[in-house]
Structures are given as structure tokens and as C-alpha cells.
Amino acid sequence: MIRRRPFSTVLLLIVLLLAALTWQNRAHLQAFPDIIGAYSAKEYCSCRYVANNPADYCEAYVAQYVPLSGFWDDAAHKRVTARGLGRTHSAQWLSLRQGCQLLPEPVALPKP
């Protein structure tokens, strides 16, 4: 079989190897969608309210290859909510000493 169909055999081996790697790293792959929104919310909050940088600078600072589908900066409450890959996360400024912290429950994004 290998002599008659070398490309099909190599392709089958590659598919099997990728399936094995995916199965071995399934927990990490399931956690990935949470990283985008959580990172963006936390880092933007820290950039904006701890380091006191301008909003435009902080937006560029947290920009990633995977774009956000929703972003909201509540300056009155110093709270940031970001949605990416279907997951929503919020971070809020606590104090100068504690900085920003991810909230256990995300704040709902306002309707456009």
C-alpha cells in the first residue's frame, strides 16, 4: 500500500499525528477562547487606570491578531469589559495598591 500510494499514506499519518496532538492538548485548546477577552480586559484596565495612559494608546497596546467582537470602557466606574471568541470578561480598578482585577462575573456589554 505504501508503494502504490505514498502521498495518501503520508497524509494519513499527518492527520493521525494531528489528531493525537489535539487529543493530548484538549484542555489547553478549550481554555484558549477565555484568554482573549480576559487578557484584553485586564491589560487595558491596567494600562488605562493604573498607568494612567490615554485610551488610544491602551487600545493599541492590547490589540491582538484575534480581534475582539465587543469592547466597553466604563470610565465612571473604572471597569472594562471585552468579548472575544464568544467569551466575555470584565476587569475593574480596585485601588492604587491593588490595581485591576478580573471580575468573577462579566458585566453585560451595552447594546449598540
Descriptive account of the structure:
With 112 residues, the chain is an alpha+beta fold. The chain is 46% helix and 21% strand. Strands 1-2-3-4 form a four-stranded antiparallel beta sheet, covered by helices on one side. Strand 2 (79-84) and strand 3 form a beta hairpin. Helix 2 runs antiparallel to helix 3. It is elongated. The termini are far apart.
Backbone CA Rg: 21 Å
Strand % is 15-25%
**Strand and helix order:** HHHEEEE
Low-pLDDT runs of 5+ residues are none
Strand pairing plus helix content: what structural class? alpha+beta
Can you summarize the main beta sheet? Answer: 4 strands, antiparallel
Q: How many DSSP helices?
A: 3
Shape call: elongated
The beta-strand count equals 4
In short:
This protein has 112 residues and is α+β, with helices and mostly antiparallel strands. 46% of the residues lie in helices and 21% in strands.
Question: How are the SSEs placed, and which strands pair?
Answer:
Elements: H1 6-24, H2 26-50, H3 55-62, E1 70-74, E2 79-84, E3 87-95, E4 99-102
Helix pairs in contact: 2-3
Features:
112 residues, alpha+beta
